[in-house]
Design brief:
The chain is mainly α. About 70% of the residues lie in helices and about 5% in strands. The protein is built from 16 helices and three strands. The protein has helices spanning about 10-55, 60-75, 85-90, 100-115, 120-140, 145-160, 165-175, 185-200, 220-255, 260-275, 285-295, 300-315, 320-340, 345-360, 365-375, 380-390; strands at about 175-180, 405, 415. The protein has a three-stranded mixed β-sheet with strand order 1-2-3, with no helix packed on it. A hairpin with a 6-residue loop joins β2 and β3. The radius of gyration is 21 Å and the shape is globular.
Length: about 425
């Protein structure tokens, strides 16, 4: 059904109808995304706090893993590829089951409750995508409008969880097909992300914002330091992608039974946690990001976070890769800044932005994310690190369904998927 709220014909009538229609739909999606995102965000916070308070929850990792596998098998979602399926709904004729949202909601909280190393944005994109499909069905939108509704849902939910509405709006437009942005979804995604962030704020869920302790004057010498950092972050982003994809393939090769696979991962995670001697690398590790922004962190922190995350997500625990990516970037940047004697706090912020663009291939989103999280004062450093990392990270990415429509190096059509 073609939803029309304004009956005038001609170019002006069509434009006004588009604006009114998507203003209404994005408001519905934004409110739903904000409310559900607020509930989910508080659930994640409670799960993380419980894990830190009750040490014995770590030993329930096998139980939570078995529960997650059982849930996905019960709803016949064993082959559910998560965020990649959301991308395929928009870029091709992929299908996304409505149960994807509730499944990832419960599974992500279980993962955080028992100490799996994961983020929450994977749930945001999947729940938001499911919500967009549900709204499309209820309003009887056609296939093309449903794709826009899916992107709208992704932005609304992402904005609600992270409190960064500009980055949330652009991420849905930019990440699916590198080199091509779905401008028809600009207004819906912007409206939904700001409404979602506002609703979540009313529910007491605050956004992610960090203070940089020192921002030196931008000079040729400091620019060279950030270019060097950006290049290193590109290499780390490629390594992180290889570790995440490689761990998944290795698990499936060694353990074909999903229950055995996730039990093996739980044993490894428990062993690693006991070996490290603390809980810094379990969950989203926001504490590590805060330490890095303060300018002090363990030298091996970024490596350990990559290992913990690869072990967790590769086996079938649920969550997201973005917050772990930000943690890896922050800790690595802080270490490089300390080594070079150049504002470890600023380098941590640049490392977060550079790692984000390296794994998502979304430079505009990365810039907006940096501005929203750190402010505008460090702008030249952020954009320099992001540009260098984007250029040198190649065609690797977190999401196998992400398409590179145009080359990073030439003005030519390539239409290839991320490694």
């Amino acid at each position: 059904m073609k939803l029309e709220l304004f009956t005038a014909r001609g170019p002006v009538g069509e434009q006004v109808n588009y604006f009114l229609k998507w203003g209404l739909i994005s408001t519905i999606v934004g409110v739903l995304g904000g409310v559900i995102g607020g509930i989910f965000g508080h659930g994640i916070q409670m799960a993380a706090a419980s894990f830190q308070r009750f040490g014995w929850l770590l030993y329930l990792l096998p139980l939570s893993g078995v529960a997650i596998v059982w849930l996905y098998q019960t709803f016949h979602q064993e082959k559910n590829r998560g965020t990649n399926m959301v991308f395929e709904v928009v870029s091709s004729d992929g299908k996304l089951a409505l149960c994807t949202g509730p499944l990832i909601f419960v599974s992500t909280i279980l993962t955080h409750l028992t100490g799996g190393s994961a983020g929450r944005e994977g749930a945001a994109l999947q729940i938001g995508g499911s919500m967009g499909i549900l709204v499309g069905k209820l309003l009887k939108l056609d296939e093309r409008d449903t794709k826009v509704a899916v992107m709208c849902g992704m932005s609304g939910y992402f904005g609600a969880l992270f409190g960064t509405p500009l980055a949330a709006a652009l991420f849905s437009l930019e990440v699916i097909s590198v080199g091509v942005m779905y401008y028809a979804a600009l207004v819906p995604c912007l409206f939904a992300s700001f409404i979602g962030a506002g609703m979540a704020g009313l529910m007491g869920l605050s956004g992610e914002h960090f203070e940089i302790l020192e921002i030196p004057a931008f000079e040729p010498k400091s620019a060279l330091v950030i270019i060097f950092l950006g290049a290193l972050c590109a290499a780390i982003s490629v390594l992180f992608c290889l570790m995440l994809h490689g761990s998944e393939h290795l698990y499936k090769k060694r353990f074909q039974n999903p229950y055995v696979r996730i039990l093996a991962a739980s044993a490894i995670l428990i062993g690693l946690t006991l070996l490290v001697g603390n809980r810094d690398f379990n969950g989203s590790s926001m504490g590590l990001i805060e330490e890095a922004m303060e300018g002090h962190v363990r030298y091996e922190a970024f490596i350990l976070k990559m290992v913990f995350t690869a072990v967790t997500l590769g086996a079938g625990y649920k969550g997201g890769e973005i917050v772990p990516t930000l943690c890896v970037g922050a800790t690595f940047g802080c270490i490089i800044g300390t080594f070079l004697g150049f504002s470890p706090s600023l380098c941590a912020a640049c490392g977060m932005a550079a790692l984000f663009v390296g794994v998502t291939n979304s430079p505009v989103t990365s810039m907006l994310l940096a501005f929203e999280m750190f402010g505008f004062e460090g702008m030249p450093y952020f954009v320099m690190a992001i540009a260098v990392s984007f250029a040198l990270s190649g065609y690797y990415g977190l999401y196998g369904s992400q398409k590179f429509v145009y080359s990073k190096m030439r003005t030519e059509f390539i239409n290839r998927r991320a490694h």
